[in-house]
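A protein record in our archive is deliberately plain, so that people and models can read it alike. The record that follows is passed on verbatim for readers who wish to inspect the format.
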Amino acid sequence: MSESSQESNQKQHIDKELLMESLKNDNIENFRSEFLDLHAYDQASFFMELNEEERLHVYHFLSPEEMANLFENLEIEDDEYSDVLAEMSPNYAADMLSNMYADDAVDVLNELDKDQVVSYLTIMNKDSAQEIKELLHYEEYTAGSIMTTEFIAIAANQTVRSAMHILKSKAPSAETIYYVYVVDEDRTLVGVLTLRDLIVNEDDVMISEIMYDRVVSVSVGEDQEEVARMMRDYDFLALPVVDFQNHLLGIITVDDIIDVMEEEASDDYSKLAGIADLDSIDRNPISAAKKRLPWLVILLFLGMFTASLIGRFEETLDKVAILAVFIPLIAGMAGNTGTQALAVAVRGIATGDLEKEKIMKIISREAGTGVITGTTCGILVTFIVYFWQGDLFLGGLVGISIFFALIVATLAGSLVPLIMHRLKIDPAVASGPFITTINDIISILIYFGIATAFMSYLTR
């Protein structure tokens, strides 16, 4: 480690010690001097390392407005917001929520009981309360639920000079100033321009002359995942939100989209793993078990069906017991191949790439992939079994079974989530364990079906 890195780490350590010492000694001046120089994220990280008694000192040392900046950067579980807010006095908490950006305040209030929400809104600043109430009405996971109403809008029939005056006056309360939106007298969105456009043009130039009138916007009811995709495709820092009459209602900023992407990725991974929720790590084994049990119980019954399926081929196994040795191999290969195809398909759906392709093209590509992987693995297994057991026909049977099993598993892993998506069902529910179990059943049917058909050659 370099000397500069060591000095930086040491300084950070000393800062924490000074902050803790200031808290314990009730030295508000030293604490504020050190603490308010930190980035809001670092403030939030330090805050969460404190116990409840120490945090009570912080509430005394910081104003609600300063606490709002910290609170927006807290990385805690959703159910912990209620506990942290309960440590504050109701008036302090309400003032803090009033000073937060409206969309961030809504995110916090959505995690509280309805009685708590009503209580805070009642004692909150009336203008802030009204703004938050409007956002609370939008359905969760839509553009309306994640947008903020703190944006800057100007008219087309004004000059750059007057627009800059508005920008300077409203910038302190706006969430972003990089985009300025142009509306008419009915608040209809008619254009957009960037901060750069205002800076590089002369003061007397009219806004209508420099604005972009082909504005990319999203409907207030649009799914947040689609909004995230648009932000990614267009590389925007913010995206305007409009109603069905194109009235400008708010904007969605890139920091909110990053949260959405993390949330959606966590949700999809939870479903792929067959778990109800992976947003948090459960310290309580009972809570963790409740989330995992539903899928495990379903898979247990599917597993029992697989076992009963093998039982139906008992006569085949009695005659050629060596066939049982290769059941895990064939089922495992099919399950792994299906999971690979599933992961690619779910990602393709999430990015929108698969939606651009025709179904026959997807089937053709995946079938080709299955043929190539199936042929390669089938040939390898054939020779491995032959050299191991000295039986070329047995090797060929196992190889052919793997060939067909991998083709079917690849198609199932790709097409099942795609069909679910076309039916407006979340494709991630075609989870890894589910696809694996289904492919187990299919591969066993293929394996024992072929073995039974060629039993006479195996028992010679």
